[in-house]
Amino acid sequence: MVAKGFQQTAGLDYDETFSPVVKSSTLRTVLSIAIHLNLEVRQLDINNTFLNDNLKENVFMHQLEGYTDSTKLDHICKLKAIHGLKQAPRAWYDKLKDTLLRLSFQNTKSDSSLFVLRENNHIILLLIYVDDIIIIESNNKSLETFITQLNIAFSLNDLGLLHYFLRIEVHKDVGGMYLKQTKYIKDLLKKFNMEKSLILSYTNGNRKTIH
């Protein structure tokens, strides 16, 4: 079920709509720190993200066609939160931020989507991109405790070690962590029926043709 956000009126049905997302520079910097300190990098995904929001505004919608209650034809629905609302991304960010602050995290000034928890013997770095979360932790036991706490607040999937984030493939071995976008490029070419096109790459100033 999705709301018709294009029918909303600014200042009446919604106010703020912008939701901060992690900067690419922040992502690379934090991953570099994780590799340097040999920290574990985990990935989480929140289920039904926007349904967790608490709206500040009163938003109503007509009953959906095909789902109308025949005994209450003059009734409309008052929404808590739903996909399609213009303020849904911002409301979700505020909800998640408030939850993390209650769990003793601090929101960094350099990037609104980077949260840090410092305690005596460990530190947790948390990066947010809407419903995708990267967690970097120096103590595995504390990490499991935090994931359990977050799962109580929101239904989530623990995707294990970081492997794919923001269309970036992540591979780690004894030599370090490697980022590439091969899958994204192939999917993009397939979308526009360009799988047979030539891709030109430059290595040390020499041009290579890749079919």
Largest sheet: 6 strands, antiparallel
Oligomer: single chain
- Quote the distance from N terminus to C terminus: 43 Å
CATH fold naming of one domain: Alpha-Beta Plaits
| Number of separate strands | 13
CATH class category label of one domain: Alpha Beta
Shape: globular
Mean pLDDT: 84
C-alpha Rg, in Å?
21 Å
DSSP strand (E) fraction? 25-35%
Class from helix and strand fractions: alpha+beta
Q: Note the run of SSEs as H and E.
A: HEEEHEEEEHEEEEHEE
The CATH architecture of one domain can be named as 2-Layer Sandwich
Helix content: 10-25%
Number of helices: 4
Poorly predicted parts: none
Task: Jot down its keywords.
211 residues, alpha+beta, Alpha-Beta Plaits, 3-stranded antiparallel beta sheet, 13 strands, globular
How would you describe this protein?
By secondary structure, the chain is α+β, with helices and mostly antiparallel strands. The chain has a domain of 142 residues: Alpha-Beta Plaits. Helices cover 25% and strands 30% of the residues. It has a 6-stranded antiparallel β-sheet with strand order 4-5-6-7-1-8, with helices on both faces. It has a 3-stranded antiparallel β-sheet with strand order 9-10-11. A hairpin with a 2-residue loop joins β9 and β10. The chain is globular. The mean pLDDT is 84.
Topology:
Elements lengths: L23 H13 L3 E7 L13 E3 L13 E3 L9 H15 L3 E2 L6 E6 L2 E8 L2 E6 L2 H14 L2 E6 L2 E2 L2 E6 L2 E5 L1 H10 L7 E5 L2 E5 L1
Antiparallel strand pairs: 1-7, 1-8, 2-3, 4-5, 5-6, 6-7, 9-10, 10-11, 12-13
